[in-house]
Fold each of these.
Amino acid sequence: MRVLGGGLSEAAKLTPIGVRVCVPIQPELNFYLKVMALTHDDVRKIATLARLRFTPEEELRLTGQLAKIVDYIDQLQAYEIAEPDLGSLGVMEAEDRPEPCLPRERFLANAPASLDGFLLVPEVKGGGDA
Amino acid sequence: MPELWELSVEEIAGRVRAREVTASEVLESCLARTARVEPLVSAYLEIFEDEARERAAAIDRRLAAGEDPGPLAGVPVALKDNLSLEGHALTCASRILTGYVAPFTATAVERLLAAGAVPVGRNNMDEFAMGSSCENSAYQRTRNPWDLGTVPGGSSGGPAAAVAAGSVPLSFGSDTGGSIRQPAALCGVVGVKPTYGRVSRYGLVAFASSTDQIGPIARNVRDSALALEVIAGADPHDATCAAEPVGSYLAAIEQDIAGLKVGVIREIDPAALSPAAARNWRQSLDRLEAGGADLVEVSLPSLDAAIAVYYVIATSEASANLARFDGVRYGRRAEGADNLIDLYFDSRSEGFGAEVKRRIMLGTFALSSGYYEAYYGRARGVLERMRRELATAFEKADVVVTPTTPTAAFRLGEKVDDPLAMYLSDIFTTPASLAGLPTVAVPSGSDDDGLPLSLQIMGRPFAEATVFQVSRAFEREVGWSVAPAFLGAAEGAGAG
């Protein structure tokens, strides 16, 4: 388990929702809350998930940059949280009924390759060694 | 006698509708101004002069036939290059959309056309709206008209620079975490991020769907209020677009703000602002008081977490939204891949720029197994906390103000190698995005180098009218008039 400080997250979850003040936990405790630094291997794994390839130089630079950003984002571990209230998201209920969509030929006009009204792609099997 | 390009949106539409000038004359004045300033500013990826001339001529014909083309009759407008206009290229300033032609028109743009506006071009932006300086465009660097060595802000840097340079009186951008307000601030113009759901997102290329909003950029508050009135309102094509009636934003805009309560966030540390911005911030509060407002202290303890929350939420959503760009259905396809997986990898790796890849990576990480709760889950929890803090603030205050940005425009290249430093310039704009609140950035004066500074005014959901009223009162107190100075470069002899 790489994520530490789970105990505090639990404590934060138990905070009554009515409490509006968000108290940053004292800085000296941050040591316990730190999520471990992003490694080269992590970056490679994420790149595969994201369908992106990087040169070794790019990968090195990206690891440094992402590690710095993730380090900054780790401050969130020190904030108290509130449970999201899904009713507060402001999503409107739209009527669910079928409507005409973009005609096929207009859609396919932007396709890099098509054949007989279908998208044309190379063989599905193989590849993926990022 | 000012030239036509110098007129406000209201004046242009008023004079065109009264047939004192023609839409074609206004357009020619703006095109001539654009020809002079565009080589210095580079705000556009494309200018479609011929089509604009046809549209303007059509408006003049309708007027001659006794018709009223609408509240934006003959007003030249520019569009950020993530807003669809049927039959026109749409690139989001990305190479992955090279060759893409919008097959339909965005709802907001449809409404502009129906109101008589004349689109003149596509504006530069940070690729897929990811950036705060416009330097992430795959195509060109846009410069700030106030000092050509500085950035125009981003991601709507092109729309803001075009308006500040006098090329058009009105442009439209999108704001996900500050992408209208921050460039408007850096370019000394007014920028509006409406309430989430106020303007349809149909036809806007998605970045982070839970905060994306389209909004206007103009040289004064009245023009931006009029423009929002035109594009706002329910749309069956966007399920998140609100049914809430729009009403008139101009009706009460000149009312004084005596007795209105203006919330000042206690956690804003003037030491975190540049010295000039800190002085200006205090002065802005004095001006609001001089305008009759009552200042009340409010608290937003999670302000310091806003950037971290925003960059987790927005990149997570972006990593999902940008999965559609894979070289199969539209946009650029990599050559030579002999299987589908490689086609995805190659098309995306060649097509996206460095910042877009960084954000897709960060979002993929935040959503990945083992990290989801620690990053996405926690960010959602802190976001909820922040929403409640803001809701509490709005129990005491009618509007809440902050500086729009901690500094005036920074130098080109200054932050380009330090993504985190770039992100931190969004500290004051991200909370309103995350909470979905209507917000206006209004010029508040300038720093010692003459670069614009800005005040941000936030309101309750759908209280745009109040935000505009306070913005207009503040604008009156500041007495700001936009006069692009073109510091650092000769604009050319006889510049008007």
Amino acid sequence: MRLGEPARLQAGINITPLVDVVLVLLIIFMVMAPQMRTGPEVTLPNTAKPTEQGDERGKIMVTIDEKGGLWIDDREIAPELFGEGLRAAVGTETDPKVVVKADSRLSIGDVRRAMIAIEDAGFQGVGLIAKRPGEKKAGGN
Amino acid sequence: MQMNGGGSGSGLQSEINITPLVDVVLVLLIIFMVVVPMMLHGYDVSIPQASSQTVPAEAEMSQVVLAVGEKNCQMFEPPAGEGLPANCRVSLDAREIPATDLPVRVAEALSGRPKDQRVLFLAADDRLNYEVILRIVDLAKSGVEDLRIEFVTD
């Protein structure tokens, strides 16, 4: 091709927009990944003014479903292995916080037994997750 | 060089092309709009530790105990709507009060204390509904800043 030739033709496909879109999708999935490990769907209790607990990163998510089954992150776990599973879930986190998503149909006794097991496993305090009025869903599921 | 030179030379552009920047910023905006409602909300609670060291410090002030019994607050199913029904009564320091008075009564009992000693011990009957207890915790916390809730176990 000589200089000065009219209308410079480009033979290769322009991949820049493709790369842009792919990078943005990568970012979206990096952001969404922590919210994907949420376990079963529960009806969270509805309260007036729950305080902010941050998002799910750096936390161990314990879910208690309506039948009283215990889940750590997205795995169901037998009650006798619960403490062990919690310590295994710490991984590389330093000072992880345990948050409990318990179904609103449970009794307080069910939740308290789980709290005792969590404290026995060496964690101090838990966050009981609720949803604000008007919020359809909380915590990504 | 000619302006809008149809066929001559390379069309140099002096301005920065901001279209990709705008694209990326809009997508980031969408990401944050999606993520913000996923913030978790809830209540920090704990169970009293059986440690001999903390007892003397806390014993200086009387412990405030909130008891929710199954006789005075017969709630075994999740409550309908918001708030608590008027027939749910709790006892704060052995005085029976309607649960809806909790913000005021807890504030009376604890707001005079230093922030690190505002502790409310909650003794609830095991059979009561979880959501009811969480609403009682909500009412108690709404009266006093930095209130720590300890779930008393049998």
